[in-house]
Amino acid sequence: MNTPIGVAVIGAGYWGPNLVRNFMGAEAFHLRWLCDLDLGRARKVLGRYSTVGATDDLETVLADDGVQAVAIATPAGTHLDVALAALRAGKHVLVEKPLAATYADGLKLVEEAESRGLQLMCDHTYCYTPAVSRIRDALHSGELGELHYLDSVRINLGLVQRDIDVMWDLAPHDLSILDFVLPDGVVPVAVSAHGADPINAGRACVAYLTLQLNTGAIAHLHVNWLSPIKVRTTIIGGSKRTLVWDDLNPTQRVAVYDRGVDVAAPEELGDEARRAMQVSYRSGDMVAPALVEREALGAMVGQFATAIRTGEPSLTDGRSGLRVLAILEAASKSLAQNGAIVEVAQ
Amino acid sequence: MNTPIGVAVIGAGYWGPNLVRNFMGAEAFHLRWLCDLDLGRARKVLGRYSTVGATDDLETVLADDGVQAVAIATPAGTHLDVALAALRAGKHVLVEKPLAATYADGLKLVEEAESRGLQLMCDHTYCYTPAVSRIRDALHSGELGELHYLDSVRINLGLVQRDIDVMWDLAPHDLSILDFVLPDGVVPVAVSAHGADPINAGRACVAYLTLQLNTGAIAHLHVNWLSPIKVRTTIIGGSKRTLVWDDLNPTQRVAVYDRGVDVAAPEELGDEARRAMQVSYRSGDMVAPALVEREALGAMVGQFATAIRTGEPSLTDGRSGLRVLAILEAASKSLAQNGAIVEVAQ
Amino acid sequence: MNTPIGVAVIGAGYWGPNLVRNFMGAEAFHLRWLCDLDLGRARKVLGRYSTVGATDDLETVLADDGVQAVAIATPAGTHLDVALAALRAGKHVLVEKPLAATYADGLKLVEEAESRGLQLMCDHTYCYTPAVSRIRDALHSGELGELHYLDSVRINLGLVQRDIDVMWDLAPHDLSILDFVLPDGVVPVAVSAHGADPINAGRACVAYLTLQLNTGAIAHLHVNWLSPIKVRTTIIGGSKRTLVWDDLNPTQRVAVYDRGVDVAAPEELGDEARRAMQVSYRSGDMVAPALVEREALGAMVGQFATAIRTGEPSLTDGRSGLRVLAILEAASKSLAQNGAIVEVAQ
Amino acid sequence: MNTPIGVAVIGAGYWGPNLVRNFMGAEAFHLRWLCDLDLGRARKVLGRYSTVGATDDLETVLADDGVQAVAIATPAGTHLDVALAALRAGKHVLVEKPLAATYADGLKLVEEAESRGLQLMCDHTYCYTPAVSRIRDALHSGELGELHYLDSVRINLGLVQRDIDVMWDLAPHDLSILDFVLPDGVVPVAVSAHGADPINAGRACVAYLTLQLNTGAIAHLHVNWLSPIKVRTTIIGGSKRTLVWDDLNPTQRVAVYDRGVDVAAPEELGDEARRAMQVSYRSGDMVAPALVEREALGAMVGQFATAIRTGEPSLTDGRSGLRVLAILEAASKSLAQNGAIVEVAQ
Question: Which of 279-298 (C) contact A at CB < 8 A?
C-alpha cells in the first residue's frame, strides 16, 4: 500500500462537500484541508466531528508540504488564478467543470501543468458513471455502428447563475460526455447556438446547440433552466443500433435498441440508385444492460490518484477540458450572432 | 335536421381510411365516393359490405351533383391540382396537411376558394384534440401568462417518405398547433433549421427548427424519423405557469405546473437593477386537468360541416394552412443555407 | 380459397361492434347478421352504409342455412340459452368470456358441442395477443425456468356492473391467460378470495384472489373497479428469469429480466443444509423482445375459422372456459366465506 | 440553545451509518459513540477523520453519563436485550423497526420505558417523509372522505434475510405507515396472509396481507423479495378522492385524483333502493401537491430530540411499534394456517 496522497479541497460551496466526502472515503488520499474564503462555511461542511483542517487562506494550503494535490471547486472565473497558484506551488490539480472561464485561460493551465509534469484533471463527473462508460464502449466497439446523431436534453428548474448562462452551466456536462464517448477521429467541427432569456435574467436561460461533426453526423443539445420537469435523456443513433440513456431511470438507464432504418442497397451503387431502392426497417429486441450502481465521484477520485501515481494523463485531462472550452466559446459566438454557424477551434 | 352533405374522399392510402370512417360516422355527412387511382385499394378500404361507391375517376366524383364537399388525402404534390379541380367544380374542400407543396400553390387554393365563396379547410387534426384545445385556452386566457418558450419533440421510427423530408412530414403538425394556440398578435417572424441525413436517404431524416417569435419568445421543434423510441412531448413555458403536453400518456396528457423562476423586482427599475435583484423560485402544485377522450378526427369533420353550413371559416382554414407553409418554406431555405436565420413571410 | 363461413354476431352492446368489425375484416368469414333485442342498436352499430342484415330475432338467424357459425356477445346470464339454441341449430359457437354464468351451465354447453361435433370456442381475446403468446412460449420453452409466482394487477376506474362483481368481470381475463400460459401439468388447485364493496354497490368492487398451484407456486390477482389509475401489469417469476408484462406500455409490453435470487447449493443436499448456504443474486441484462403489433381479435377470429375448417379444438376451447369457471366459482365461495381456502374442481 | 443531547448509535450494519450521519448533522445531538460487536466495522463507518468514539462494548456506552440517548440498529432479535439494558441504564431509546421480535418482547420494552419515564421511539422512517405526512393530512382532514381501500405494493430484488421472512422485513414499513395515517378510531381488526417460498429459502419470500378494518374498509399489502422490478406504490381510495403515492417518482410522489364512483342516491333510502339507482362517475382533475424534499431521517432525529426535551411521546412511540407487532404476529399466524383470518390483538 502506498502512502496516501495529501489533498486539499478549495471551495466549500455547492460541489465542494461532495469532493470532501469522496476524498475522505478514498484510501488513496489523505484529506488535509478544506479551504474557503468563508471560513464558517468550510467549518460547517466539515461538521463538528472532523479532524480535517478548515482554513480561509489558500497560501497556508499551498505552503503545506503534505499537500500534493489540490481539488478546486470555486466559481469558474477564479479557476485560472487558483489553479495557476497551485501548479506553481508544485501541486497536482483537479478542477471543476468548466476548466476555466475562457479557452485562453484553460490553455495557460494546460501548458503550465505540462511544463511542470503535473497532473491537470477535469472533474467531468459523468464520464465516470457506468452509463457513460457503457456508451463509450458501445461507440468504440462498433456495437452501434457509425454514429448518426446524438440528441441530448438536460432540462430542469435550475438555479439561475449570476455569472454564466445556461449554456456554460449545463452544456459542459454534455460536451465533456461527447468528448469522452466519440471514437478516435470523430470531432465536432462547427456549432450553432440559439437561446432565449424570457425572464429577463440578463443571460440565456434556454439554449439549443447544434454541432456538426466531421463525419456528417449531427449532435444537438437542449439545456434549460426554466423547465418544471426534469429530463436528462440522450439518444445516440448509430448505423447498427441506437442507444438511449435516461439518467433519471435508475432501473433502466441505458437501453440498446436494434431498431432502425436501413437503405437496402449494395454499396457499389451510386447515391441516386440507392435512394431509389426501398428502405427497410429493423424492429428487433431492446436490451437494457445491467449496470453496476456506484458513485461516479468515487471513481473519478480514484482516477485522479492513478494519474498522480503513474504520471499518465487521466481520461478527462486538461486537454479534454480545453476541447470543451473550444466548443463553448464557439457556441457563445454563435449565440451572439443569432445562431450563425461558427467553426470550432481544433 | 339538415339534409346530410354529400361528400367524397379522394385518396385511399394511409390517411384516407380514417376520413372514410369518420365521414361514415358523422350524421351531418353522406359519404358517396371513395376515389383512388388504384381502384382495388379503394375497394379494399371500403370492404365487402359497403354501399359507398369506389372509383378511380376523379371526374366522375366532381361531376356528381350530390357531392358538395371533397376531402383530399393524396400526396402533397397533388393537392394543388386535385383541390383546384374540386373548387372549380364548386365543391367545398378539406385538405390533408400540408395544404400544398409550396406557399404559392397554397395561395392559389386560398384565393380560388375565397373568390368562389367555398370552404377550404386544412385537416390539422391535432387542433381538434382536447389537449390542444386546452393548451389554446391556457394561452388565450392568461392562465400561463406570457409565452416564454415552446419546446416540442416529435420523434419515432417513422416511414421515410419518398417525396418530402422529415420537416415537411412531421413539422406541419407542430406548426399548425403553434398557429392554433398562439394568442392574437403573437407570431413567428424568423426560423433557423438544422438537419441531417445520416442514412443517405436523399433528404433530411432528423431536423431541428428554431422559431423566433415577435415577442422575443422562442419555439423549438425536434422532428426525427430515426428514433427507436417514440416521444411526443411539448413544453409550453409561460410567465405564470408551464404546461407539459405528453401525447403518449393517455391518463395525463396535459399537466400544468405552478413552478418557475421569477425575477423579483419592480417593473419600474431598469434592467441592470432588476438583474441585481434576487431571482425567486416558485414550487407549487401541478394540476392535470381532466380531458374528455374523443376522436379528434370526428370533431374535425364536425367543424367542416359547420363551416359549410354557416359559411364561416373554420379554425383551421386555408389561411392557417398558408401560415404553416410560409414557415416550412423559410425553414427549407434555412436548411439549405446551413441554419441561417430566414424571415417568415407574413 | 375456401368459401367464406357464414357468421352472425349476437349482441350489439359493448363488445359486439368489435366482433362485427373483425368478422367483416376476415376473408374466411362472411358476416350475414347482427342480431340484438334492440334492433335500433344493431342498426346503429352497422351504420348507414352496410349490406349486413340487422335483426332482433334470433330465430331468423338460426334458421338461416347460410349461417354456419354464431358469435355471442350478450350478457353472461344469457349465454346458456343463446349458445344452446345455436348449437342445437347446428351452428359453431364463439362465446364472450365468461363461457357461462355457472360451471354447470358451461358444462352443458361443452357437452352439447362435443356430442354434436361442433366448435365451442371462448373469446379469451388476450390469449391472442403477441404478448401473451410470448409469455406462453417463455413458460413452455423453459426460458423462465420453473414458475415461482405470478402477480397480476388489473385495475381501473371501471364500469360497475349490475349483474356481476368485479371478480367475475375482470378476473376471467387473468384466469384465461393463466390457463393459456401454464405448462402442461401445472394447475391451480385452491383459491382464496378477499373483497370489499366500499361504495355499497351490492357486490365486490375490489377483490384479491390468491391461487395455489399444484407445484407450490403462487398466483395472485388484484382486480378493482375503483382505482383512478389504470394498471395492467403481470409479473411472472421463474427460477431462471422473470418476465414483466405491462400492457399499457406499447413500446415495451414484455420485458425479460435475468435478475433473481438463487440458492447456491447442490440439489443433493437436504433442505436444512441448502438454507445454510449463501443465497446469491443474479443481476443480468433485461431484454424487451420485439413484438409485432396486431389486433388480437383478428387473430382470434382467424383461429375460429381454422377450428371450424379443421375440426380441431382451438387453443381457447370450451374446456378452457370451463376451467376458468371452476376457479371463479371456487373464488366466489371463498369470498362468501371471508377468504377461506376453497379447492378448485378439476 | 440547549446543550446537545449525548447520543450513541448501536449497530454499524446496514442502517447504522444513516443514523450516524443524521445524528452528526443534528444540532440537538452530540454523537459520542458508535458501538458494534465488530469494532472494525464501527471504525470503518466513522472513517479516518472522525472524533466520534468507536467501541465494541455496550457496557462502556451505557456507563457513559454523557450519553442520554441510545439508537439501536441491531438485528431485530437483539432489540429486547439491548433496549432493555439501555432503558435500565436510564437512557432514552430509539429502535429500528420492528420494535422487537415478538409482541410480548415489545410490550416489555414499552412498560419498562413508561415505568421509568423514558422515551421509547420507533424509527418508522417513512412516517417522517413529506409524502406520508401529506397522506396523513389528507385522511385526517377529510380531503379524501372516508377510507375505502388501501393497496400497497413494495417489491424489489431484496436481500433474503436469514432471520425473518419478507413479511417481517418489509411489511413493518407499510404497517407503521398505516398506523400513522389512519384517522382516530379506524383500526385493523383482522388479517389474512398468504405467502410462498419458491426458492426454498426456508421462509416466505413473497407475501400478501389482507387487513380488514373496523369500518369495513380493506387494506392489502404485497411484499416481495424476488421481483426484478422495484415498485413502491400505495393507492388510498376514499369516498371523495383517491390518493396515489409512488415513492419512486420523485417529481410526482403524491397525486390526488378527483376521480371515482358514486352511488347517486339519497342517504335515507334503503340499501336495496340505492343499488337500483344509477351509479355515477366523477372524472375530475388530478393534483400533484408540491412536497418539500428533505431527508426523512433528519426529521425523525429531530422528533426524537423534541420528545426527549418535552417528555411528550413522539408520533411513532413504542405503542405504535406495538400495534405494528400485533398485526405482524396475527399475520404470521394466518400464514401458518394457510391464510385463515386471524384477529388482531387490540
Answer: 283-290
Nearest Cα to Cα of residue A26 among A6, A40, A11:
A6
Among A147, A155, A189, A220, pick the best mutation site for testing chain B contact (most B Cβ within 10 A).
A220
Residue of A nearest to B285 (CA): A228
Interchain CB distance below 8 Å, C339 and D339: yes
Q: Are C344 and C193 in contact (CB under 8 A)?
A: no
Residue of B286, B287, B293, B294 to mutate for D, most D C-beta atoms under 10 A:
B286
Query: Under CATH, which number does the domain A127-295+327-343 receive?
Result: 3.30.360.10
**Homologous superfamily assigned to A5-124:** NAD(P)-binding Rossmann-like Domain (3.40.50.720)
Record: contact C285-A285, CB cut-off 8 A: no
The CATH class of the C5-125 domain is: alpha beta
Instruction: Assess: ipTM above 0.90.
Output: yes
Which of C49, C51, C247, C248 to mutate against chain B (most B CBs within 10 Å)? C49
Quick one: how far is CA B309 from the chain centroid? 23
Chains B and D form CB pairs within 8 A to the count of 30
Which backbone phi and psi does A178 adopt, to 5 degrees? -55, -45
D20-25, Cβ contacts within 8 angstroms, sequence gap of 24 or more: D20/D45, D20/D46, D20/D52, D22/D295, D22/D297, D22/D298, D22/D300, D22/D301, D23/D71, D23/D301, D24/A47, D24/A48, D24/A49, D24/D52, D25/A47, D25/D298
Cβ separation A252–C286 shorter than 8 A: yes
Spatial contact of B132 and B315, defined as CB atoms under 8 Å apart: no
Whether D249 and chain A come into contact, CB under 8 Å, resolves to no
The distance of B322 to chain C (nearest Cα, Å) reads 35
Do residue A286 and residue C259 have CB atoms under 8 angstroms apart?
Answer: no
Of B293, B299, B291, residue with least CA distance to B25: B299
Of C24, C48, C229, the CB nearest to B47: C24
CB contacts < 8 Å between C and D, how many? 163
The closest alpha carbon to D248, from D80, D129, D85, D99, belongs to: D129
Q: Do B262 and A160 touch (CB under 8 A)?
A: no
Residues in A closer than 8 angstroms to B153, CB to CB, are: 153
The answer to whether B42 and B74 are in contact (CB under 8 A) is no
Tens of pLDDT along chain B (346 residues)? 579 999 999 999 999 999 999 999 999 999 999 999 999 999 999 999 999 999 999 999 999 999 999 999 999 999 999 999 999 999 999 999 999 999 999 999 999 999 999 999 999 999 999 999 999 999 999 999 999 999 999 999 988 888 899 999 999 999 999 999 999 999 999 999 999 999 999 999 999 999 999 999 999 999 999 999 999 999 999 999 999 999 999 889 999 999 988 876 555 555 555 455 567 888 899 999 999 888 999 999 999 999 999 999 999 999 999 999 999 999 999 999 999 999 998 7
CATH H-level superfamily of D5-126: NAD(P)-binding Rossmann-like Domain (3.40.50.720)
